[in-house]
Fold this sequence. Notes:
- This protein is mostly helical.
- Helix content is about 75%, strand content about 0%.
- It has one domain (about 5-255).
- The protein is globular.
Amino acid sequence: xxxxxxxxxxxxxxxxxxxxxxxxxxxxxxxxxxxxxxxxxxxxxxxxxxxxxxxxxxxxxxxxxxxxxxxxxxxxxxxxxxxxxxxxxxxxxxxxxxxxxxxxxxxxxxxxxxxxxxxxxxxxxxxxxxxxxxxxxxxxxxxxxxxxxxxxxxxxxxxxxxxxxxxxxxxxxxxxxxxxxxxxxxxxxxxxxxxxxxxxxxxxxxxxxxxxxxxxxxxxxxxxxxxxxxxxxxxxxxxxxxxxxxxxxxxxxxxxxxxxxxxxx
Length: 265
C-alpha cells in the first residue's frame, strides 16, 4: 500500500477540528510560551541594567528561551496529537484502518508544526514588542535552528509515543517531562564550557547543544557556525533513525501483547 497524502490530510483535519472546537486547547498553546517569555524577559531587562551583563549579551536569554520553546513545543505538539487518540480510545481504530504508521507519523508531524505556529507566532511578536528581540540579527540561522530543534522534538516524540503504545497511559507523563531531562545538558542559557568534563560528551551527543552554541555564536560574534549546524544535522539524522526504529519495534510489541485496544487504561 502506497503512502497517501489524502489519508494524512484527513487525519490532520480530524486534529484540526479538535483544536479549533476547544478554546482551552488553543489557550494552552499560547499561554505557556508567553508566560515563560514574560518571566525570563523581565529578568533579562533587570539584568541588563546591572553590572554583570556578560551572560545576557545580545538578548541571549530571550533567544535561548524562544528556541527552547520551539524544541519543547515541537515535541509536546507531536505527543499530544497522539494522546488525543489514546484519550478518546480511538487508537485501535486508527491502527486497524488503512492508515499506514508512516502516514500517522506524518500527520502528527504536520500537527506539531501547526500547534507550534499557534504558540510561537504571538510569542515572537511580544518578544519584539516588549524586549526588542531582533529576529533579523539571527538571520537565516534562525530558520536552521528552528528546523533542527523541531526534528529533535519529533525524534523524542516518536519514542514517547512508542512507550505509550507499549505501556499505556502509565507512560503518559513522559510527554510533559522527558524534555526537561535534556534541559541542563542542552546548554540553553549558558555555554558548553561551564559543564563539568564528564558531562560534556553527553551534551555533545545532543543536537540541541550545537544549536544553542550556534545561537550564542551568532549573537556574540556575528558568525553563523556552519560546523555546529552540520554536527546538529548529522546527530538529528541518527536520532530520528533510532527513534523511528524504536517506534516501529514498540508498536510491534504492543500488537503482539494486544495492548492497543487497552491503551487508554
